[in-house]
Write a structure and sequence with these properties.
The protein has about 475 residues and is an alpha+beta fold. Helices cover about 25% and strands about 20% of the residues. The strands form ten sheets. It has a four-stranded antiparallel β-sheet with strand order 4-11-7-9, with helices on one face. A four-stranded mixed β-sheet has the order 18-17-22-19, with no helix packed on it. Strand 1 and strand 2 form a beta hairpin. The protein is elongated.
Length: about 475
């Protein structure tokens, strides 16, 4: 492979040259961005005119890691006031973000295309790219602005502490590698194909998650019964469908009851007498992903664990109780814990299933938005230190199957759906890694793509080695 910078032990390969940026093919060049485009700054829209109606105001919060934009209720601002002409985007405009609110500053300088059916307004701290010359493929520039070569310069030169900034001058003084126009198009087409696959996977995952959410609503409330529990098994009604009855929560199956959630789990947990060499795993809510998966585990000997921690066992359910520690009521299952015993700070409650209850069934209830909304209303304490009392979780009424077997089967259905989603997420992650590898190879000329004068890419790839 061709290294970015040649060394004595790794000389420049034949057909390549050393530049101020990297080792690149002889027929490629390098360019500063100021020789390719200029940047137009946005308008300072007045905060008092932000609304839930009107055109969308593009903000740094709309940019996705890895390029592109997304608009959800929580990150979409709209504007009801007047503004000067010339600050409306057109579809196809290429923009980049110059302010980053994330902790790791990995969004700063990243690009996106405007592709929206609604009107989108050009806000301050968003740069609109205006090309100075024609021989540039717009998508190639987009991918160049996602390359580590460019992004590392932007991140390392960022100013600010909590909120990080870059400037038009820093961006325009940055360098990119510049192939001939036809090869730019061939590279952009190859990377666009991978992006199309990523978009399909993201759409499929979102669809599967929506199906799972709807299935949870049906199964956990008894509106849909699994076939093996939907019919009377004996007596005068043997073989007949089990009907419904009215309850304080509305219509539920005749053989279900409304119970307090706390009837399914122990009222308290206590520290076990552990041998000094017993391994225990520390878990904080920062170690739990947004889809309630354990993403980091640190195991230590029990003798090194200081007092003041909450203990739990593998298979227990953890529920966040302190804000702003993610969401209050956020649930996490510990069945993937590395050890039999876990411990953590007092930022979560421990729900240990009773012998007649299924731990997975309890977990899926903790992931429901309706439960979290209820816990939000029950929080106590002062601003910034509010918490969810254990009693609020205990007293929450739920419709519940009369047998542990039905709880388990409901949980198994949902768990199978989770497994399917996780498989798709792993495929998505792997495809993103493949894209990163392709970008590294194609944008530096390490791997060359055959192309014709129209920029069409051959299915054959030529390795630069």
């Amino acid at each position: 492979m061709v290294d970015m910078i040649a060394t004595a032990s790794q000389p420049i390969p034949e057909g390549y040259k050393q530049t101020e940026v990297a080792v690149i093919p002889n027929d490629w060049n390098t360019k500063q961005l100021k020789n390719i485009f200029s940047l137009k700054n946005g308008y300072a829209f007045k905060g008092e005119n932000f609304s839930d109606k009107g055109p969308i105001v593009l903000t740094p919060g709309n940019f996705k890691l890895g390029g592109g934009l997304y608009f959800e209720n929580r990150n979409t601002k709209r504007y009801k006031g007047t503004y000067p002409r010339g600050f409306e985007f057109e579809n196809g405009d290429l923009v980049l973000v110059m302010t980053d609110l994330t902790l790791d500053c990995n969004l700063l300088g990243q690009p996106a295309f405007i592709e929206n059916e609604e009107r989108v307004l050009h806000n301050q701290r968003i740069g609109k790219i205006l090309f100075l010359t024609k021989p540039w493929d717009k998508k190639f520039i987009y991918y160049s602005l996602l390359s580590p070569l460019y992004l590392s310069v932007i991140k390392n030169s960022a100013t600010g502490s909590t909120v990080r900034h870059t400037s038009p001058t820093t961006i325009l003084n940055s360098w990119i590698i510049a192939p001939p126009k036809e090869e730019q198009t061939a590279i952009a087409n190859a990377l666009s194909d991978v992006d199309a696959l990523l978009a399909q996977l993201e759409k499929l995952i979102a669809k599967k998650q929506a199906i799972k959410t709807a299935t949870m609503q049906q199964l956990l409330t008894g509106k849909t019964r699994l076939p093996e529990f939907a019919y009377y098994k004996d007596g005068d009604k043997q073989g007949q469908p089990i009907g419904t009855k009215q309850s304080e929560l509305g219509e539920i199956p005749e053989d279900w009851e409304v119970v307090c959630f706390g009837e399914l789990f122990e009222q308290s947990t206590s520290r076990k007498n552990l041998k000094a060499n017993t391994l225990a795993t520390f878990i904080g809510m920062q170690d739990v992903s947004e889809n309630a998966k354990l993403i980091r585990q640190i195991s230590v000997a029990a003798s090194k664990v200081k007092s003041g921690f909450t203990y739990f066992e593998k298979g227990d359910v953890l529920v966040a109780k302190i804000t702003p520690c993610f969401e209050n009521g956020k649930g996490c299952h510990t069945k993937t814990l590395n050890t039999d015993i876990g411990f953590g700070s007092t930022e979560f409650h421990v729900l240990k299933a009773k012998h007649h209850s299924d731990s997975d069934f309890i977990y899926y209830w903790t992931t429901r938005d309706i439960l979290r909304s209820n816990l939000e209303r029950e929080m106590v304490g002062s601003a910034g230190h509010r918490r969810v009392p254990f009693s609020a979780i205990q007293d929450y009424p739920i419709p519940c199957p009369s047998t542990k077997q039905e709880q388990t089967e409901i949980a198994n259905i949902l768990s199978d759906m989770d497994d399917e989603i996780q498989t798709l997420e792993q495929r998505l992650k792997k495809t993103r890694q493949v894209k990163q590898g392709m970008m590294q190879e194609l944008l530096t000329g390490r791997t060359r793509l055959p192309f014709d004068a129209s920029g069409e890419t051959s299915t054959e790839i030529i390795d630069a080695n």
